[in-house]
User: Fold this.
Amino acid sequence: MTTASVCITPFSGEKPSQYAERVGKVYADASGHKDKKHKGQFFTPLVISRFMGNLATPSGKKNVRVLDPGCGLAVLSCALIEHLVEASEYEQISLSLYETDNNVVSLTESVLSYLQEWCAVKGVKLTYKLHRSDFVLEKCGYLCDDIFLSREISVAGKFDYIISNPPYFKLAKDDVHSRSCASIIDGQTNIYALFMAICSRLLEENGQMIFITPRSFASGRYFRSFRDYLFRYVHFDFIHLFHTRKDTFSKDEVLQELVIMRLHPARKLSDVTISSSYGVRDLEDARHKQYKASDIVDLASVEKVVYLPVGERDEAVLNLFRSWNGNMEKYGIRISTGPVVAFRSYDFIVSDEADGAVPLYWLHNVVKMLCDHPVNKADKGQFIRVAPETKAALLPNKNYVLLRRFSSKDDNSRLVAAPYFGNMSRHEFVGIENKLNYIYRPEGRLRRDEVMGLTALLDSEMFDTYFRTFNGNINVSATELRIMPLPPLETIREIGRKIILKNNYSIDYINDLIMEYFKICGNE
Assistant:
């Protein structure tokens, strides 16, 4: 279907945002999900658009400038401007929008024309310009940090309000967007981060940025440079979390874990309101709580991880972890990624122990509190032959904690760890596949009670709760675990000894033991 064949006229009394959503439904029904996913293009539902638009607070000006850098059908712009017009006395609104999809822009023009008419009826003059160009490539130069550029941005004009549901897709290192924004990229990032970074430079002195994005930026190495850059220019004052992945963009089957944010220029820190709802249906009944800015992001830290507690229990867990000053490095313990890369070792991976093959552990061999081996699975041979070509990828057969590097989107736990003991195999070496992390002591070996204590902590609901406050994706990064606070080493050993003496490795017992040991309280 081409947009030329679509003719949808506004209903009498229909708000522009309602009209935009109605146009969007017709377009979306005619567009394939694969095409939208390829473009990272998912139109914002009206209930979310209005929630975001209503986050804008009055500027005190008569004339304001608005930017929508990845507008789609402009439903967010409509919702924002409806709120501004109805909540305050504006005389003129200047709106700039960007959209690269030629199949959409003619429909967007129809929506904007109706928005303009609606504003005129309300006594507000709306002018708009729809740029049919790539916002990131056009504005990437603004990421440079020099005084002449700051003057150019001021001349070009900053914005009082920036609202966006940018595209979400990972960028390859050689992608033109990655190359253009190399100064804030460390490895493989997501294009939404580039939209946010550029917009942080385009905000007026008292301006507001309102975005909905995945929360994957909150932690991890790939977003470290982005976080460092973003917090130089803007800070949060409001963040909304959804408890379910599936409800936010349910019609488009988007399973990202999304957050809605309002940010302001970084001249001074303000308290941050954390809001939460199960999904969109209870959005109007969201729970709110205020936190100090330093409780959400420690700007003095290297990582600048964003912590997002929801409820008293999350707060209690965060406070407990912040009271600990131990970590793996302090205890002479390291975490690394499994060195066996399956496709490189394909010819040496076998299904039985013959010909001097040693055990090979894959992700499916690791379940909570148990290394289950062998477990036959198609194309997942349970052994690997010792040969000159594989020896560099094999590890000494000693005590380890094995930890999955990925969780499924529907897993109850992000952290899944299992104890591995050297006496589980008679071989000199063991293979650990690349989708696992392994924890070890490089000088010597982990004690049995250390292995069991660390495994129990990682598998516990308490550690999972802490991990979820900052990790918004399915990856379990070794970088995040290296800096994760740990209780005193002797406490870890004592927990391990209790489990060994009790000879009870069930998750229920582990959770009861950990919660009783650390006296965690607080409601969900």
Q: What stands out?
A: The two ends are 48 Å apart (CA to CA). The chain has a mean pLDDT of 91.
